[in-house]
Amino acid sequence: MSVLATGAAQIRASRRVKRRWLAVALVVITGVGVTYWRLEPWFAPRVIEYPMLVQTDIPTAVAVAPEGAVWFTIELSDAIGVLRDGKIHRLPKGTPNLEPLGLAVDASGGAWYTDTPARAIARMAPDGTIRSFPLASPVARMGRLAVAADGTVWFADATTFSITSLKNAVFTRHDLGPSRASPFAVAVAADGTVWATLQEVNKLLRLSRDGQLTEFDVPTRLSGLGDVAVDPSGAVWFIETRANKIGQFKQGSGFAEFAIPTQAAAPTALAVAPDGAIWFTELRAQKLGRLHDGRITEFRLPQADARPFSIAVDAENNVWYTDLSGRLGMLAFDRGTAR
Q: What pTM does this model have?
């Protein structure tokens, strides 16, 4: 079982774990990478938070639509959440949520999500209409999900040890082969190349457009690979949860690692902003982090019990995050934030 899936199971079992984390109890190894950083900005960034409509709801994954709607999945619920015009709405999906880690929005504003209890990938249209695509496997254990520029939906399928795509209602599996590694996160570059993290074997996976698989060993051993994203230049960014680092991989120049200033911060997700910054969550530190030009800046959230888990950045560089303590939040873009 993956580290984040284990944490999700703990949250389902106890309301108390909601206030601790969705990920997993982590053994944090102090990062040895070197970077320039500052602990806190001198100014107080503007944070807006929206409490859940139902007290037991746990907002989990988050994604921003092109028109600005903010979608989020909800653990311990049978609904998908969306924020429009400053108001949260719960849209029924018909099945309970179980580790709803996969969420992405397509060009038309539809929200694609992993539906583990239904063993399916589903799309909710902006009006709440749902179309579901059942998987053939009798059991489903799925990680993150991404939508490519051409509309193809990609997701990490840990049950079948594969990266799987959905296009024109047809699933195509890309088996990881002899390693039998379980993929967790997936991202798609602008050129259609797919990247994934393989937690058990501490590798990055590259799936080329012609279907060729290539694995790359991450320098720090047992680093606890998590979320992954690709910036416009093609650089791959990823979470190293146990190592307390943000990693980068560039074809031709290899790996770089950036240590998070706060020890045992428990990073769980990251996102690329339009201005080129890499934003990430620090679940145990009650902070959001920003990595730009080799420097990490941390932003403390206003609530003492904050547990930021997933993150997304909108077209205006505003940073959206889910808080496992029962809130959807936004750190508003400020020119000072970008310094």
A: 0.87
The CB density around residue 103, as the number of other CB atoms within 10 Å, is: 24
Residues 6+ apart with CB under 8 A from 148: 154, 188, 192, 194
Q: How many structural domains is the chain composed of?
A: 1
Q: What is the DSSP letter of 276?
A: S
Q: Give the whole-angstrom CA distance, residue 331 versus residue 118.
A: 34
CATH number for the domain spanning 17: value is: 2.130.10.10
pLDDT tens, position by position, 22-67: 333 322 222 333 333 333 333 456 999 999 999 999 999 999 999 9
For residue 336, being part of any structural domain is answered with no
Q: Is residue 339 assigned to a domain?
A: no
**Residue 123: domain span:** 3-331
Do β-strands 183-188 and 170-175 pair in parallel, antiparallel, or remain unpaired? Answer: unpaired
Amino acid letter, 292: H
- Which residues, 6+ apart, have CB-to-CB distance to 271 below 8 Å? 229, 278, 279, 280, 311, 312, 313, 319
